[in-house]
Amino acid sequence: MTEKGEFLCSCSSLTPSRETARFYLLGIFIAVYMLAGAAIFSTLERPAELMAHQLWDQRLKDFSQLYNISCEDLESLLLHYEEARTAGIRAEPGRALWDIPGAFYFVGTVVSTIGFGVTAPSTMTGKILLVFYGLFGCSATILFFNFFLERFITLLSFLTLWFHKRKNRKNGSGEINVEERKPSVYQVTLILWCAVLLVACGAASLYSAMEGWTFLESLYFCFVAFSTVGFGDFVSSQREHHEEIWPYQMANCLLMLLGVCCTYSLFNATSVIMKQGLDWTLGTLGRIFNS
Amino acid sequence: MTEKGEFLCSCSSLTPSRETARFYLLGIFIAVYMLAGAAIFSTLERPAELMAHQLWDQRLKDFSQLYNISCEDLESLLLHYEEARTAGIRAEPGRALWDIPGAFYFVGTVVSTIGFGVTAPSTMTGKILLVFYGLFGCSATILFFNFFLERFITLLSFLTLWFHKRKNRKNGSGEINVEERKPSVYQVTLILWCAVLLVACGAASLYSAMEGWTFLESLYFCFVAFSTVGFGDFVSSQREHHEEIWPYQMANCLLMLLGVCCTYSLFNATSVIMKQGLDWTLGTLGRIFNS
Ligand SMILES: [K+]
Ligand SMILES: [K+]
Fold first, then answer.
1. How far apart are CA A254 and CA A206, in angstroms?
2. Do A92 and A240 form a contact (C-beta atoms < 8 A)?
3. Which of A90, A170, A238, B242 is at a distance of 20 to 30 A from A27, taking alpha carbons?
4. Closest approach of A236 to chain B, Cα-based (Å)
């Protein structure tokens, strides 16, 4: 990734004012993007939220009338249920959360910063330990992701070189331009985009077969997990009978690892293109204000 | 961050075998670290999980006997509650989730990849939109974090330069070594570590005052949020009366932004030190096997 390397190396050669302008321009862009997103998601989800509230209030009232229990008593039960939920208890029976495979899954969500939140330390010792555990774990994972990206680009460079060599041999010209070896950031982004799509589709087929989700829901889960957002509304491998299916658990871990690595790389490649876009915007703005 | 720049620039000059060795060594290190973590967290949390299960089973049984409801009927109510929960309904009344400020908070957890999961799109349109929204949002945020890190190091460089200039003027020597301008990765890590601690302590004081959490719980929340793990077991600014306290909401957003930026930088700086540690380990292993 030449652009990425240049971008980090050239920080001292840039004038501070250009750096500052780029930083603030991106800040403004993100703020506007977030405001627009808030407006759109609010429009989309607000009616569903109100409907869900109505439905739940009705169900609670019906239940309280049917069994002659006051709503306050039911709510105290629900508060107890909320308390139990933080320890991983669900109405639908699930797998044990803190046996060794469960704890391994938990640790995986910490170091990858996915953090589904199905499992979270409930003891104070666990909470304190998590802070120090996470600090080193997350740093190590970031390094691993960076190594993955490096190796991915090296692989692409070798493939490009091999492809050009073969083409040149066919054309009869023996010279190889060294610059041709380096794939452009656009090529890398495109290939990463395809890789993420491929992994997501493969994983989604597996999840839709094993978890009872639709294919679209599985794709949504894949994106949420791979991008390390990890809402926790869909979490793979949590059903009671999954505990015994070792091949599925292994496949789940490997697909997650591959997906997260590819998506991290895709985000980084996209961010390099965005940086070029910012530079272009600044240049255009400069020309407009100077003329 | 010289080391970071070098590390990304030097990828083509390294022999593939060394790169490969480093990649696998880190992979093994992370796997061992995760297994050790799984064992420790399982030991710590498994008793609490079993106790919580016992407590909840007892409470459910008591409730079913007291009001003469079958456990199955109660469980169907809890399943309905789970369904309502995904739409953001809680036993304890909270703020509206999908009004504009709520949606803004949600969008913030997406682009920062914190993903607390208190709010997640429930409609299919929202889910599909989220995938595309997140792709660009997360890339932009990664770029923003990288800019922040660059600017932080530039600021440190200027401070170091200023400090050396002052010292040299006092000592009477006018020359400034250019190398002195660049802070080492250890200095940067130490300063970032202090910055994260400072922001976390400041934020924890605010949260322990506003959320009814203990100071340690608030610190734990800060780490979970700043590292973008975001379990969602503690989520700030979700209480009913928080909706009206604008200064608190603003302070919450700004502290989160500052904390996430500093922690991202800290993780990156730590990962550079880890890379040096890996190189040292490989060198030592090489000497042992060659002698
Ligand atoms: K997360
Ligand atoms: K999360």
1. 12
2. no
3. B242
4. 15
A89 contacts B73? CB cut-off 8 A: no
pTM equals 0.86
Residues on chain B touching A53 (C-beta within 8 angstroms): 84, 87, 89
- By three-state DSSP, how is residue A94 classified? strand
Using alpha carbons, list the distances in angstroms from residue B167 to A106, A260, B160, B170.
Answer: 51, 48, 10, 5
pLDDT at A146: 94
Q: Do A160 and A180 touch, CB atoms closer than 8 A?
A: yes
Q: By 3-state DSSP, what share of chain B in percent is helix, strand and coil, each rounded to 5?
A: 80, 0, 20
Cross-chain residue pair A230–B117, CB shorter than 8 Å:
yes
Q: Phi and psi at residue A239, in whole multiples of 5°?
A: -75, 160
Mean pLDDT of chain A: 86
Which of the residues B83, B132, B227, B263 would you substitute to probe the A interface, choosing the one with the greatest number of A C-beta atoms within 10 Å?
B227
How many CA atoms, within 13 angstroms, populate the side-chain half-sphere of residue A142? 25
For residue B268, which amino acid is it?
A: N
A38·B141 Cβ contact <8 A: no
Higher confidence at residue B245 or residue A235? A235
Mean pLDDT over residues B60-83, rounded? Answer: 84
CB B82 within 8 A of CB A43: no
Here the ipTM equals 0.86
CA separation for the pair B243, B25 (Å, rounded)? 49
Nearest to A49 among B69, B98, B113 (CB): B98
Is pLDDT of B9 > 50? no
> Do A1 and B12 meet the contact criterion of CB atoms below 8 Å apart?
no
- Helix pair angle (B71-86, A71-86), 10° resolution: 70
**Coil vs helix vs strand at A117:** coil
Residue with tokens 């039911």: A74
Between B84 and B281, whose confidence is greater? B281
pLDDT digits (tens, 9 = 90+) for B155-187: 998 888 888 888 877 776 555 555 556 788 999
Of A39, A49, A154, the CB nearest to B87: A49
- The CA distance from A291 to A54, in Å, is 59
- Chain A and chain B share a number of CB contacts under 8 A equal to 403
B115/A230 Cβ within 8 A: yes
CA dist., res. A158 & res. A164, Å (int): 10
Of the candidates A42, A48, A223, A128, the residue with the CA atom closest to the CA atom of residue B223: A128
DSSP A12-71: GTS-HHHHHHHHHHHHHHHHHHHHHHHHHHHHHHHHHHHHHHHHHHHHHHHHHHHTT--H
Structure tokens at B174: 């006018």
- What residues form DSSP beta bridges with A239? A94
